[in-house]
């Protein structure tokens, strides 16, 4: 795939450093872009050497999935942002941001000795594999351009562009009456004593914020009595070879939440992003929570998570175990990250410095493999993501302005004093989640 010209403009903004041999770099020689952004304890670099990495990434900023004439155009009297891409495709901003993220990782991984500056990887040592949607292919391509700017790394995708690869498709592949009963019970439990109705009612306050910012009472849909998002009509559908699905007010509100948050990232004028309203940070977070909750309801119930994430869990474990592989980049969707984390039994988390608290746009589940000086091999998990300010203003990522990182903890697994799991323990958690399918 040809590189877009403005990648080179972005790359020119970052300085380079001399090539490194494949060993840990002394702290005094670490390039300025690789400050201790993972908040490691003192002496960490003396105890461990980075030996490999697997990243599961969400695509970067895209246009809303619905085009003209969709529900989005009917639930507000306002004009939506004029996007630089077709519905569901990566925006120009998304491409620049992902290139910068790749550049940041290049500088950091050079400092760790995992890759060399301007490396052309030996075949088999690096893999970039994405879902076959334009936004995921493009995200992987932009990241690879930032990380390996002279290598022209191939991005694998296995299906016709615009169709879902089964590895990344969060579809159910085993469904029977017992599965439906158990899964619906798990989803209903998210709503407490009131079940699915409670799951809808949980978003009542968030819906009210959405309705105000959209001015839904003055929208074309108001002529058909759609002046608010219902909380009492949530219904879940679980069918084989289909994604978990829902109908009701939460689904409609999710579409609005998704579009508004994307508009906020893309539109740098605060009032224009909020359709002329003055919207506080707390209100943006409240509206984004609707989208997060929609994803939780559909993809994170234990029985559902191990089902829809099964092929991706197998792929990730294979990448972790592939001899000679030092870097893997798998690019999919928020539903992929959410279901994988749920299947691995991640502890509850609420991401700081983000509007989206679970799987922000462009976020990455990063699994590092570390060789300890004690002869053991360890692993850690982090969610890496950009702040809203970084997404909107696009400052160069580097010293003093790294992306955010949040350590992911897994229920029932013991970490050592440096926050690392034994790699064998993490691999066993993967195999248990795969077997639970």
Structure, described:
The chain is of the alpha/beta class and 437 residues long. It has two domains: 6-169 and 309-435, Phosphoglycerate mutase-like (Rossmann fold, 3-Layer(aba) Sandwich), CATH 3.40.50.1240; 177-301, Rossmann fold (3-Layer(aba) Sandwich), CATH 3.40.50. 39% of the residues lie in helices and 12% in strands. The protein is built from 16 helices and ten strands. The longest helix has 20 residues, at 92-111.
Question: Summarize this, please?
Answer:
About 40% of the residues lie in helices and about 10% in strands. It is of the alpha/beta class and about 425 residues long.
Distinctive features:
eight-stranded mixed sheet; single chain; globular; alpha/beta; Rossmann fold; disordered N terminus; 2 domains; 12% strand; 437 residues; 16 helices; 10 strands; two-stranded antiparallel ribbon
List the helices and strands and how they pair.
Elements: H1 6-12, H2 44-47, E1 48-58, H3 71-74, H4 92-111, E2 126-130, H5 134-147, E3 155-156, H6 177-189, H7 195-201, H8 204-214, E4 235-237, E5 245-247, H9 249-266, H10 270-273, H11 281-299, H12 302-308, H13 310-321, E6 327-332, H14 334-343, E7 364-372, E8 377-385, H15 388-393, E9 404-407, E10 421-422, H16 423-435
Parallel strand pairs: 1-6, 2-3, 2-6
Antiparallel strand pairs: 1-7, 4-5, 7-8, 8-9, 8-10
Helix pairs in contact: 1-4, 4-5, 6-7, 8-11, 9-11, 12-14, 13-16
């Amino acid at each position: 795939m040809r590189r877009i010209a403005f990648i080179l403009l972005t790359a020119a903004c970052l300085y380079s450093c001399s090539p490194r041999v494949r060993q840990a770099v002394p702290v005094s020689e670490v390039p300025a872009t690789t400050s201790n952004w993972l908040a490691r304890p003192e002496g960490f670099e003396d105890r461990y050497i980075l030996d490999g990495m697997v990243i599961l990434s969400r695509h970067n900023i895209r246009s809303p999935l619905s085009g003209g004439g969709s529900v989005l155009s009917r639930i507000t009297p306002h004009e939506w942002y004029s996007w630089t891409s077709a519905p569901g495709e990566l925006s120009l901003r998304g491409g620049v941001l992902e290139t910068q993220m790749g550049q940041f990782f290049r500088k950091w991984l050079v400092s760790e000795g995992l890759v060399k500056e301007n490396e052309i990887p030996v075949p088999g040592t690096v893999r970039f594999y994405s879902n076959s949607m334009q936004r995921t292919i493009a995200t992987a391509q932009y990241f690879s351009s930032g990380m390996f700017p002279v290598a022209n790394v191939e991005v694998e995708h296995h299906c016709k562009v615009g169709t879902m690869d089964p590895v990344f498709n969060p579809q159910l592949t085993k469904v029977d009456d017992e599965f439906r009963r158990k899964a619906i019970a798990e989803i209903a439990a998210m709503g407490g004593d009131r079940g699915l109705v409670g799951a809808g009612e949980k978003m009542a306050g968030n819906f009210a914020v959405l309705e105000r910012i959209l001015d839904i009472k003055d929208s074309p849909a108001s002529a058909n009595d759609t002046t608010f998002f219902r909380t009492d009509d949530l219904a879940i559908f679980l069918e084989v070879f289909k994604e978990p699905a829902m109908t009701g007010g939460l689904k409609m509100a999710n579409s609005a939440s998704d579009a508004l948050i994307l508009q906020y990232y893309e539109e740098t004028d605060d009032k224009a992003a909020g359709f002329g309203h003055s919207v506080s940070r707390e209100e943006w977070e409240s509206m984004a929570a609707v989208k997060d909750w929609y994803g939780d309801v559909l993809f994170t119930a234990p029985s559902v998570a191990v089902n829809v994430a099964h092929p991706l869990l197998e792929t990730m474990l294979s990448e972790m175990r592939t001899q000679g592989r030092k870097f893997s980049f798998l690019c999919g969707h928020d539903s992929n990250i959410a279901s994988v984390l749920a299947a691995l039994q991640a502890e509850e988390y609420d991401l700081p410095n983000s509007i989206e608290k679970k799987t922000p746009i462009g976020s990455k589940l990063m699994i590092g493999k570390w060789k300890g000086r004690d002869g053991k091999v360890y692993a850690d998990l982090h969610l890496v993501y950009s702040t809203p300010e970084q997404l909107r203003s696009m400052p160069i990522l580097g010293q003093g302005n790294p992306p955010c990182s949040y350590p992911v903890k897994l229920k029932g697994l013991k970490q050592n004093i440096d926050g690392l799991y034994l790699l064998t323990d993490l691999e066993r958690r993967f195999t248990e989640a795969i077997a639970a399918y």
